[in-house]
Amino acid sequence: MPALVLIPGLLCDQRLWNSQMLVLKEYVDITVADITEQDTISGMAEAVLENAPVHFSLAGFSLGSQVALEIMRVASGRVTRLALLSATAGGVPPAVNATLQQAIQLLEQGHFVEYFDAVYSTYVSPSKNEDQMLKATFINMARAVGREAGLRQMRALRAINGPIMNLGEIRCQTAVIGGREDRRTTPEAQEQLAKGIPGAELVIVENAGHFAPLEQPGAVSEAMERWIME
Fold first, then answer.
1. Which of 56, 131, 137, 178 could disulfide-link to 3, CB 3.0 to 4.6 Å?
2. Which tens digit of pLDDT belongs to each residue from 38-65?
3. This model's pTM is above 0.85
4. How far is the C-alpha of 205 from the C-alpha of 190, rounded, in Å?
C-alpha cells in the first residue's frame, strides 16, 4: 500500500488528522510525523525524512506545511503527492508574526492554558466559537504537546525568512486546502501559494477558519480523498 506522511501544525498532534485518517486509511499506509523535538524548520524536515519511506505522499498543516515545503526543497524526488493545508508561500504574515511574539512572551511567563483558552476564537470560524468539543480538542492538543515544544515551534515559524523560492519547481500532484474564514493563513495567501505551484488545485472550505481539518472534517477529508486518488 502506498505511504502517506501527515505533519501536524503548531501545538498539534495526531488528533488534528483523526477524521481524515479514517477516510484515507482505505488507500494509504499513514504515518503522523513528530515535529516537537526540533527547533528549526530544516531540523523538523530532516526528522520527518529520516522516519519516512523512500517514496511517500505528504500533507502538512500550518507549521507542518512549512516543513513540507522544506522537504520539497531538499528531497522533492521522494514525494509523490503534496497537500498543503492552512498554508502560505513562506512563513507567517507580519500581524501573525507579532501575535506569535506575544504568545512566546506569555508562554515564557507560564500562561500556557490561559493563552490558548483566550485565543481559541481567533483560530476558528465565528460559527465554531461556542463549540466546546472543538475547543477542548484544540486545548488538549496544545497541552499534550507542551509548553517547551510550543516555544520551539513558534520560534521556528518566526525564523522563516520571506517566501519560498522553489515553488515553481514542484511537479507532483498538489492540493492547497484552507478555510474561507482563516484569519492567519488567509484565502488570499492560500491562492497566492496555489498560483506559485504548477497545476496545484486550490480548495477553499466554507465555514472554516484556520483549523479546517477539525472544523469541517468532512469537506477536508473529501478534498484529500480526491487528491490521493487522482
1. 56
2. 999 999 999 999 999 999 999 999 999 9
3. yes
4. 11
Domains in the chain: ranges and CATH: 3-92+156-229 (3.40.50.1820)
Distance CA 188, CA 178 (A): 10
pLDDT tens digits for range 100-138: 899 999 999 988 888 888 899 999 999 999 999 999 999
What's the CA gap between 230 and 226, in Å, rounded? Answer: 6
- Tell me the CA distances in angstroms from 135 to 104, 142, 194, 211, 214, one per residue in order: 21, 11, 29, 11, 10
Expressed in angstroms, the distance from the first to the final Cα of the chain is 16
Q: On the CB side of 213, how many CA atoms lie within 13 Å of its CA?
A: 31
Cα angle value 153/106/69 (rounded, 5°): 20
> If we measure between CA atoms, which residue out of 227, 221, 223, 214 comes closest to residue 22?
221
